Structure formats: structure tokens, C-alpha cells
Amino acid sequence: MQTKIIYVLVSSLEDIYYEQCLVSVYSLRKYHKDAEVVVLVDDATAASLTGNRSLLATLATEIKVIDTPIEYTSLQRSRVIKTSIRKHVSGDFMFIDTDTVICAPLDDIDNIEADLAIVPDFHVSFAEYPFRGYMLSEMYHLFGQDVSHVVDYFNSGVIYAKDTEMVHRFFEQWNENWTYSAIEKNNPKDQPALLKTDADAGQVIRVLDGKYNCQIAASIRYLYSAKILHFFNARFFAHNNIHPFYSSDFYLRVRNEGFTHEIDEMINNVRMLFDAYSTPISRPEFEYLSSPEGHIMMALREKCGWKWSVMSIILKIFRRIS
């Protein structure tokens, strides 16, 4: 595989981002022993990669330190590096978020023809995006821009990028838009800035096959063919127990135990670790669970104990009457 694999890591002893990145790179090395893997870090993270946080340096080809503004928060440092990857790395690359597991060979990314390719967020077009209304409002608030004409809103968890002039210009503009959003509007998320950049450039991002960024919280469509599982969180997973990789407990085990035989087998069989009670839900059910009223009802069920039981009985009576 000639395409470089890039990670961005900003982490301290107080979080699990290092362990997430370690697991992702460890899983990648199962299929690609010789791939060039570059981890971009800030100064503080680099200084922390000692002792029991030194294994990543042996798995990666290079740990590259990137200067970031000292006044930035850790989240801002992470995103300023991410939106400027192209100027720090030569050659074609695939960026992969740390909260991922590689579960199949990636050799065929060398054959991707697009200059810039990303998987749509939630694996749907922007017209079908469950949070389309919110994003339209957010984009107008952040940038004063109507993006209702845009075809796709992309998930930046996996990005394929060639080393071309167009891609360099795109990343420069993405970084500029992100900086405005983060500093002037206090919104450090990188995907709204990505959406603006793509819209302004004439929608130059091409759709990457969903198997390279299987977003389990959104869809199981690509689970069978997935090459990269992306475990970004969803607020309606009350206990994160749908899969152990959604829980910090797994990554704390990696921190404290290392890659034991049991943990290694969990990584090998990552597709099969979903809780037996993990029923797929339809779009209306998803939209309800993601809504404010859905969040409230889940919180009530979690916190109210016997009061919830009484409420449940009352609701059942109303359902029968209706």
C-alpha cells in the first residue's frame, strides 16, 4: 500500500484518546505491517508519549510534532492540525480518526481516482440527513450562508486526499473557515467548516465508499463490507453498552493490561461484539430518540425508578384507549 495513513492525536493522561489511537493503529498493523503511518501531535501530547504511552511510537512510522497556538484548547489544537494536514504531509494520504478499528485490508485505496473523497455523514445525502434543518440553521449562524443546494454533508472521520494543487487549496480554505468558526464564533467543530469549504469550491469532494467509514451509530448498511469501523458516539446510547468499543472501560483495559490475548481477540472479532440486544431501528424511531423529547424520556426512564414504572403504566392505558 503506497497511500500514507495519517492520524491526529491530542491527548493527556486524563482522556482515552491515546488508547483509541493505539487500538486503531494496532488493528491497522494486522493488515499492513509496512504501511507508512504518521501520527500528527501537538507539543504537549508529544511530551506525554513516554512510559506506558510509548508503544504508539513503535507502531507508527513517525510521530510528527505540529506547532499549535499555545492559547488553544485541546479540542482546538486537534482540529487546527486536522484541517491543515495537507501542508504537513507529502504524498497521497488517508486520514483516519482515532475512534476507529481497521477490520480489513486497505490496499485498494491506492486505486481511488478522486483527488478528494469522503463518506457522507450518516451514509445519506444532505437531503435525507436527519439533522438537515439544524445544519442549515447552524451554517447560517456561523457563516451567513445558505447551503440548501448542497448534495452531500460529509463525515470527516476518514478522508482520502491526493497531493494535488486543488487539494492543497481546499485544505488551506478549510483551515481558514475552521479558524473563523472556532475563534470568532466559538464553534470548534470541523464539519461545518468542511461543508462551507466544499460548497464554496463547487462541491469538489467525491463520495467515498461507505465501507471506509462505517458509522455504526448511524447505519448498519456497511457493517458486512466494512474496512474501517467508526465508533463515534451517539447521545441516545444511554450506557454505551451496544458494543464494548463505545465504552471507555475497554480503552482503560488497554491502558492497564496492554494487548492481552483477550483484547487482541476482541479487536480481531470487532464486528461480532455487538450486544445481542442491539435491534436496528427505523428512521422515525431514530429521529425520536435523537430529539429533545427523546432525550428527556430516556433521562426520565434512567433516573426516575418507580416513578417511571407508574408513568409507563399510565402510558400503556392511554395507548389502549387510543
Features:
322 residues, alpha/beta, Spore Coat Polysaccharide Biosynthesis Protein SpsA, Chain A, seven-stranded mixed β-sheet, three-stranded mixed β-sheet, 13 helices, 41% helix, 13% strand, globular
Note down, in words, how this protein is organized.
The longest helix is centred in the middle third of the chain and has 20 residues. A 7-stranded mixed sheet has the order 3-2-1-4-7-6-8, sandwiched between helices. Strands 5-10-9 form a 3-stranded mixed sheet. The chain has a domain of 212 residues: Spore Coat Polysaccharide Biosynthesis Protein SpsA, Chain A. The termini are far apart. The protein has 322 residues and is α/β, with parallel strands linked by helices. InterPro entries: Nucleotide-diphossugar_trans. It comes from Bacteroides xylanisolvens. This is Glycosyl transferase.
N-to-C span: 61 Å
Instruction: Identify the overall geometry.
Output: globular
- Return the CATH class of the domain at 4-215: Alpha Beta
Strand portion: 5-15%
Helix content: 40-55%
Largest sheet: 7 strands, mixed
- CATH architectural group of the domain at 4-215: Alpha-Beta Complex
Report the C-alpha radius of gyration, rounded: 21 Å
Number of H- or I-type helical stretches: 13
Give the ordered list of helices and strands: EHEHHEHHEEEHEHHEEEHHHHH
CATH topology of the domain at 4-215: Spore Coat Polysaccharide Biosynthesis Protein SpsA, Chain A
CATH superfamily of the domain at 4-215: Spore Coat Polysaccharide Biosynthesis Protein SpsA, Chain A
Number of strands: 10
Structural class from helices and strands? alpha/beta
Q: What strand order characterises the main sheet?
A: 3-2-1-4-7-6-8
